[in-house]
Structure formats: C-alpha cells, structure tokens
Amino acid sequence: MSKSLKLIVEALLFASDKPLSAREIHSTLPDASLAEIKEALGALQEEYEELGRSFSIKEIANGFQFRSHAEYGPYILNMLQTSPNRLSRAALETLAIVAYKQPILRQEIERYRGVDVGGILRMLGEKGLVKIMGRKELPGRPLIYGTTKKFLEVFDLKDIESLPKLKEIEDLGTEDHEPTTTDETASPPEEAIPPKGASASPETESGEKNPGTDPEGAPADQ
Q1: Do 111 and 167 fall into the same domain?
Q2: Averaging pLDDT over each range in 44-53, 74-83, 168-177, which range is the top one?
C-alpha cells in the first residue's frame, strides 16, 4: 500500500461531513482496490490510537469518520457557544422501543408505553432518527417504523447490533447501581462530538401528550 493512498483516504474522511464506507471511498478512487482501501483505513485507525490525540477514526453507521473523544465535548460546545440538545424522557423511551423492537407498528409502541406516541414519532422522524419502513399487510395497512443511519451517527454506533443487550443493561442496573428517587430525572450521557460538521444531538422535546391526541389533530400513521 502506498503512503499516498493512505493520505488520500485521510483527506477524504477529513473533508466529509458524514461517515464514509470503504465502498464509497472506492467509488472515488477506482484505481485502488477495495482491499487496499480497507488496509489504509485500518492503518489510519491504528496510527491515531497510538498518537493519543483528542480524536480518532471510528467506524460509525457502517462507515468511517473522525470523532472527538467525549471528554472534550464541553470545550467544543463552549467554543461553539451552544449547549447539548437532549431528547425528553418520553422521546428517549419511544426511540429505545423502536431501536430494540424494529420493525414495529405505532400501535405496538403504544402498548409498551401506555400513551399515544403519534406526536413523538413525528418529531423523531423530523429529526431523522426514525423512518417509515413500509406498511404491514393488516387491515388499514399500518405504518412500520425503524431507526435510521443518522440514529447510528448520533448515538455513536457501528450498526444496530452494537446496541447494548437488554440483559447487559439489566445486569448493570442490579449489580452496580442501587436505584434512587433521582434516577428518573437523570440526563443521558453526552455523545462523542465529531471535530467538524457533524450532526448535533436531537433537541429537547416537550412532555408526553394525553392518549388519543396529536399536535396536528391527526394520527401520525395517516
């Protein structure tokens, strides 16, 4: 592998505002083989880890991207004069159900949560975290929901299989933590922030609605 190929791959990753897969890089560099590009990506990852820099090249959303380490997030946010936007507890619960149970119907989500989720699903869709995957062959042909590539980017995941297993979460809660009354209001941890041009975390969404209501007066599935 030539040194120039590695530097070209590095330049493409640096200039891109989204994760790039090896195949996407290959489409830009047809003279290099896919195996050579994957070798260059691996070499770059190792080099940045060895250098101990404030950022590294991570495999995110089935692609590769420069990502700053989470501990430097507050300094970056201070420079940008902004604050991390967060989802409400209701929105996070809905998003977690979609992520773990997809493909899933709105009615199934509402059975888990016990409240109407039309407005929250619409908001998550507008933020690009949830998408409509199709319609199920049932009366009324209800919409089927799943997560998006942006969801993987925002939550720093290689793919959907990288989500923590539910058993691991349960074990963590029972072995390492004693529940308190403050747990329900705890904020989720900040995500790693790309050094430039990456999508911000979702904005805060207001609390739950009453069952059977929707901000726009109609169910999200229609």
Answers
A1: yes
A2: 44-53
The verdict on 39 and 122 lying in the same domain is no
Dump pLDDT digits (tens) for 102-159.
Answer: 999 999 999 999 999 999 999 999 999 999 999 998 888 999 999 999 999 889 898 9
Give dist(CA 118, CA 215) in Å, integer: 8
For 45-76, how does the pLDDT look when each residue is reduced to its tens digit (9 = 90+)?
999 999 999 999 999 998 999 999 989 988 98
Looking at the chain, the whole-number percentage of residues with pLDDT higher than 70 is 73
- The verdict on 46 and 93 lying in the same domain is no
Angle at 145 between CA 110 and CA 143, to 5 degrees: 80
Distance of CA 93 to the CA centre of its chain: 14
Beta bridge partners of 64: 20, 59
- Taking each helix axis from N to C end, the angle separating 34-51 and 3-15, rounded to the nearest 10 degrees, works out to 80
Structural domains counted in the chain: 2
Domain span including residue 154? 89-185
Burial of 92 (0-12, 13-18, 19+ CB in 10 A): middle
Q: Please check whether residue 222 is in contact with residue 103, taking contact to mean a CB–CB distance below 8 angstroms.
A: no
pTM more than 0.85: no
Helix intervals (H) in 72-140:
73-80, 89-101, 106-113, 118-126
For residue 34, CA distances in Å to 27, 41, 159, 217 come to 9, 11, 21, 51
